[in-house]
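$ ./design --mode recover --in tokens.txt
reading tokens...
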């Protein structure tokens, strides 16, 4: 074997070793990222999860709003990425505890009984106005001492929460996507999908409640979302005794 052939063989061998090392490194990083995502969502390989579906506020009993369907599709993609499975349940048939399986609950308490139960038991500092009669506070959120009113198509709010049962042996989280309108439900799921890595780094496996503002949805749909505040402490504490919030928030 002359020097040229030897150099070619050594070059091929070196390239093969480099490619193998690169493949191993990429596989390791991908698996580490997958494990972090699975831990954040509580979805190990082949685990089961629940997608709790609300109903259309003005539709027949089993109707689902278009934007809520889009929200469910985005959540289904997240679940599939974790190598897990999802069972879809209507909100009024999900009569079971939480913590055994990861749960994704979509829709406000007016259209989702399951969401109403979660807010009552897990977030005592949150009230959602579900009055049927028109009025300035219809659909508004009260979080602690602050109230956030809805202006349809211009300024709307949503709560995104990851919660676990503190006194339970079951540790799978429940994710809440509670919007003032169906498009804000989808905005909350999209915000989670886009920011899951940052949220996992910040909160780990802990609970959080984020207040999001959806801006000009009539023009931008669910894409333009601002984080208003981390309201975890206020949402998990009892409401203050004063019946009238000190602040109201409305688009100018």
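writing sequence...
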């Amino acid at each position: 074997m002359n020097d040229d052939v030897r150099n070619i063989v050594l070059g091929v061998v070196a390239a093969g070793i480099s490619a193998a090392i690169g493949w191993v490194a990429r596989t390791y990083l991908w698996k580490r990222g997958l494990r972090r995502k699975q831990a954040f969502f509580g979805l190990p390989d082949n685990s089961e999860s629940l997608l709790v579906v609300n109903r259309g506020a003005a539709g027949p009993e089993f109707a689902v709003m278009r934007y809520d369907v889009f929200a469910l599709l985005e959540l289904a993609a997240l679940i599939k990425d974790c190598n897990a499975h999802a069972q879809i349940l209507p909100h009024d048939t999900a009569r079971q505890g939480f913590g055994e399986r990861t749960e994704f609950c979509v829709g406000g308490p007016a259209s989702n009984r399951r969401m109403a139960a979660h807010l009552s038991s897990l977030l005592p500092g949150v009230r959602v106005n579900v009055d049927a009669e028109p009025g300035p506070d219809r659909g508004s959120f009260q979080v602690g001492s602050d109230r956030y009113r809805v202006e349809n198509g211009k300024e709307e709010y949503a709560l995104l929460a990851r919660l676990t049962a503190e006194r339970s042996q079951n540790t799978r989280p429940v994710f809440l996507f509670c919007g003032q309108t169906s498009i804000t439900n989808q905005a909350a799921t999209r915000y989670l999908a886009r920011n899951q890595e940052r949220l996992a780094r910040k909160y780990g496996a802990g609970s959080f409640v984020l207040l999001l503002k959806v801006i000009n949805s009539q023009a931008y749909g669910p894409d333009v979302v601002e984080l208003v505040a981390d309201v975890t402490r206020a949402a998990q504490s009892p409401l203050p005794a004063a019946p009238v919030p000190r602040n109201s928030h409305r688009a100018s």
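exit 0
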